[in-house]
Amino acid sequence: MTAEPMSATAASETGGQVTIMFENDQVSVPRRPGETLLESARRAGMTPPFSCEAGNCGTCMAKLLEGTATMRVNDALDDDEVADGYVLTCQAIPDCDLVTVSYDED
Ligand code: FES
């Protein structure tokens, strides 16, 4: 018997899930590589607030309840807000397979 490389099966598992909570509603969509949380929310049929879509205004801000995401640009949130889990959803791309973000946290 020969051993199979571990990576052979792991590569096919590109799944993951993004869950968005907005106005007391909750929808999950399959994670897509490189998609921002705002784009995922729209794909889920939600209409969360946004304005500049450039990381400048903070209108699209939401709070991560599960998982982590990296913002391409952040010219709106201060360090304390980031430390509390807030992200600019127009700029935030999930770093892990399971992410939950809520627009209802204020
Ligand atoms: S829409 Fe302006 S920072 Fe995201």
Automatic annotation (TrEMBL):
Cofactor or coenzyme needed: [2Fe-2S] cluster
Source species, domain of life: Bacteria
Name this polypeptide is given: (2Fe-2S)-binding protein
2Fe-2S ferredoxin-type domain segment(s): 16-106
Keywords: 2Fe-2S, Electron transport, Iron, Iron-sulfur, Metal-binding, Transport
InterPro entries: 2Fe-2S_ferredoxin-like_sf (IPR036010), 2Fe-2S_ferredoxin-type (IPR001041), 2Fe2S_fd_BS (IPR006058), Beta-grasp_dom_sf (IPR012675)
Signal peptide residues on this chain, from the entry's feature table: none
High-level lineage: Bacteria, Bacillati, Actinomycetota, Actinomycetes, Mycobacteriales
Residue ranges crossing the lipid bilayer per the database entry: none
Family as reported in the entry's similarity comment: Belongs to the 2Fe2S plant-type ferredoxin family.
GO MF annotations in UniProt: 2 iron, 2 sulfur cluster binding; metal ion binding
